[in-house]
Design goal:
- By secondary structure, the protein is of the alpha+beta class.
- 35% of the residues lie in helices and 32% in strands.
- The strands form three sheets. The chain has a four-stranded mixed beta sheet with strand order 4-9-8-6. Strands 2-1-3 form a three-stranded antiparallel beta sheet, covered by helices on one side.
- The radius of gyration is 25 Å and the shape is elongated.
Length: 150
């Protein structure tokens, strides 16, 4: 049976970069025309191994960078000034977008507003602990103080 290197994830066969055994006809008539796999030669197996190692290093680097960003954000205290009435209720509210802008100003880290987890927008003056997802599986808790704008 000939061997093939998968160029994309294929259900029932394996993941990208994996070397698999398939029948000659399946490789020639299905996998190669759809650019799902290429025939495995010594050179292509080595190239696939190098690509996989480079991809693994890139994932590890991104994970460590996200961890460093999360540690930095855990030490961050955001102060957001907003107009408020005498009873401490805000005119409007502090949303995830406001928090994302405050993080960018304070630390220079760009966080997507959809990765900031608030149960509901902040409508009163006070201190809150806001959970931010820096990257998949890496979260940070930021102390956010909402103060009355003078």
């Amino acid at each position: 049976m000939p061997q093939a290197i998968l160029l994309q994830d294929v259900e029932q066969l394996g993941e990208r970069g994996e070397v698999i055994d398939v029948s000659k006809g399946y490789l020639r008539n299905f996998l190669i025309p759809r650019k799902l796999a290429e025939p495995a030669t010594k050179g292509s197996i080595e190239a696939a191994k190098r690509r996989r190692e480079a991809a693994d290093r890139a994932v590890a680097d991104a994970q460590s960078k996200a961890q460093e960003g999360a540690e930095l954000l855990n030490r961050t205290v955001l102060t957001i000034a907003h107009q408020a009435g005498e009873d401490g209720r805000l005119f409007g509210s502090v949303t995830t977008e406001d928090i994302a802008e405050a993080i960018k100003e304070a630390r220079g880290i760009t966080i997507d507003r959809r990765n900031i987890h608030l149960d509901e927008p902040i409508r009163t003056v006070g201190t809150r602990m806001v959970v931010v997802e820096v990257e998949a599986g890496v979260t940070a808790t930021i102390k956010t103080m909402v103060v009355e704008q003078k």
